[in-house]
Write a structure and sequence with these properties.
The structure holds 2 protein chains of 2 kinds.
Chain A: E1 2-11, H1 14-31, H2 35-54, E2 59-67, E3 71-79, H3 87-90, H4 104-110, E4 114-120, E5 124-132
Antiparallel strand pairs in A: 1-2, 2-3, 3-5, 4-5
Chain B: E1 6-9, E2 12-16, H1 23-40, E3 44-48, H2 57-72, E4 76-80, H3 84-93, E5 101-103, H4 106-128
Parallel strand pairs in B: 2-3, 3-4, 4-5
Antiparallel strand pairs in B: 1-2
Helix pairs in contact in B: 1-2
Classes of the chains: A alpha+beta, B alpha/beta.
């Protein structure tokens, strides 16, 4: 798998979420994802960026466009927040420790092809998602 | 502070969302709309989201809240103009906007509001006679 383009975008404030959505849209468009696929990926990015901001206390998103074996876009959200004690529970629809609807993690999983969560309590969380063309 | 304009047209309030909304802007709109409904005694709210490129769970929840709050204030809400890609994504995300009335475009939305308002008035007349 080769990475064609890579950039890191801070996720530390609400305006950053708007930047995240805009850049993911631009890169997904360049890679050639269809409008529906772009919309799915941007929506997943919005949900995950909000998690990074609210639950992780802020962090970063790495945005990569991939070429080989297929074209695609990978997003990796990293924070040094409290971590997720029970990932299985956190992935269930309706589960939330905050005030949201609990659709962020489980919902965004349905919008991408690959979904990976790595979290250590007290150290932070890393969520990587990929949508292939 | 950045705000989304709310236009008054007779008994209705019109909102066209033309910016990529961050969460606080969505919260502000929710609050502004409820106070405008009560100030103007509006009977209907039409929200045009045709410029919105995504609706995530936060914005979806805001639309649901606005519909519920306006109902409590005796006004109907119709959300119009959702892009097809947004509709597909929203349902896959797990949100089908329960309790939110929708129409394909502004014209259809206005028609829906007028109909429900007329129906409402007709019912009131029946009760009076």
């Amino acid at each position: 798998m080769s990475v064609v383009h890579s950039e890191i975008i801070p996720v530390a404030s609400e305006p950053d979420m708007v930047t995240v959505r805009r850049r993911v849209r631009e890169v997904a468009g360049k890679v050639g994802l269809s409008l529906v696929d772009q919309t799915k990926l941007v929506t997943a990015a919005s949900e995950l960026a909000r998690n990074t901001l609210i639950y992780g206390g802020g962090g970063t998103m790495q945005l990569e466009s991939l070429n080989g074996p297929r074209l695609g876009v990978r997003l990796t959200f990293v924070d040094n927040g409290p971590g997720i004690p029970n990932i299985e529970l956190a992935l269930q629809d309706g589960f939330t420790t905050g005030t949201g609807l609990g659709l962020g993690l489980g919902g965004s999983k349905r919008l991408v092809h690959e979904f990976e969560v790595d979290s250590k309590v007290g150290q932070g969380t890393r969520v990587a998602v990929t949508r292939w063309k | 502070m950045e705000k989304i304009p709310i236009l008054r047209m007779g008994e209705f309030l019109l909102v066209t969302i033309q910016v990529d909304m961050h969460d606080r802007l969505a919260m502000t709109l929710q609050e502004d709309l409820t106070s405008r409904i009560s100030e103007t005694a509006a009977r209907g709210v039409l929200i045009d989201i045709s410029s919105l490129e995504i609706v995530d769970s936060f914005i979806g929840r805001m639309l649901g809240n606005i519909a519920a709050m306006s109902r409590v204030l005796d006004a109907q809400t119709v959300v119009v103009g959702m892009q097809p890609a947004v509709a597909i994504t929203l349902v896959e995300l797990g949100m089908s906007l329960p309790g939110v009335r929708t129409a394909l475009n502004v014209d259809a939305g206005m028609e829906l509001l007028k109909q429900s308002l007329n129906g409402h008035k007709a019912k009131k007349n029946v009760r009076r006679t």
